[in-house]
Amino acid sequence: MWNEGDPRRELPSHEVAMGRSPGAEVVVLDDRVIEAASRAQPGVTNINVTKSSRLHIGPKFVSVTQNIDNTEVVKDLPLPRYLWDIAKSTTRAERLSCAAAIVVLAVCIILIVYFTVVSKKNVNNVVDVAPHDWYITRKMWLAPKFLDDDTTEFTPVKLIIIAHTVSPECHLFVNCAAEMANLQSYFSSHYQYNLPYNFVIGNEGRVYEGRSWKKIGAHTIGFNRCSLGVAFIGDYREGLPSYSKVTSLQLQRAQMLFDMGVELGYLDKDYRVVGAKDLASSYSPGANLYREIQKWPHYAHNDTFKDKSCEQIYNRASPPTSSTLRTLLSDINETSTLL
Fold it and tell me: What is the DSSP letter of 47?
């Protein structure tokens, strides 16, 4: 390839290696030879290579693919350390907001516990003190005076009508006395008359004096003049989301009231008991209470008094026309809104 006078001929033998084979010349060059050749003048214009797959001329680009397995090892941390790490990674405003939320949650839990456990326990520990064991007069529950209550001419009374007040329950004397005052205020402000019932029985089992004995009530139109109206505090209509349930003590105290009336001569010894719904279109006294009074021995079955006048019930002659009209107007002016 080179002339005899070519200066590259003078290169050391360790930089150039030449070999000959039959029919072709083969030149093996390494990097140092190529570098020296690139500096020599004139440059190499042609290189003949035969049967060599490992020869490379010029810059060599190597593509390297490297696969790295990035495995993250998660170590379980104790809860306090975990919470502390989270707290350090938050801002001061976020920490204050979180603290405020925790305080509010704690207050809510304390209030729930108090009103569901502690408060209920305190109510159960309240001593229910009343002026009398079971019979509470108007003076005892601080009733206002009414001077326009008429006296019935039908004595002793043969008919007792049971109703319910459709009002909140009360299980302590102080609460029942307040409920009596509320009922009194309602009827006086809306209907301008006294409490319509002769007696009211509280959920705690005490009997509260309404219009009392011998007074005409305003509870059942057509029968007010010749009956005794007794109402149970609460709403005893079954099927409501929440309704009152009559207790054995309430029923017992009602019987005690009736026995006292017979003893004092206010009630006929053969008196009869009915529900308000037996005499008029009404839900009173509610299915729960109505079912219980039907078990009483003095309950009047088979609509004994329905569509009868007071005179017919007491086997008296009908009053004159003017007296009948006056009685009708009295009943119209004094009618309650029982459900």
Answer: -
Per CATH, the number for 135-333 is: 3.40.80.10
- List strand residue ranges (DSSP E) for 173-316, in order: 199-201, 207-209, 227-232, 267-275
Q: What confidence score (pLDDT) does residue 64 get?
A: 62
Q: What is the pLDDT of residues 140-184, one digit of tens each?
A: 999 988 766 788 999 999 999 999 999 999 999 999 999 999 999
Domain regions of the chain by residue span? 1-61, 135-333
- Residue 146 near residue 128, CB atoms below 8 Å: no
Assigned token pair, 131? 């002026």
Cis peptide leading into residue 22 (ω within 30°): no
C-alpha radius of gyration, the chain, whole number:
54
For strand 207-209 and strand 157-164, is the pairing parallel, antiparallel, or unpaired?
A: unpaired
* In contact, 226 and 159? CB cutoff 8 Å: yes
Which residue positions in the chain have pLDDT lower than 50?
Answer: 1-2, 11, 14-21, 24, 325, 328-329, 332-333, 336-338
pLDDT of residue 302: 81
3-class SS shares of the chain: helix, strand, coil, % to 5:
35, 15, 50
| Residues 173/206, Cβ–Cβ less than 8 Å | yes
The answer to whether residues 26 and 50 touch, using CB atoms and an 8 Å cutoff, is yes
Cβ partners under 8 Å of residue 33, min gap 6: 11, 15, 16
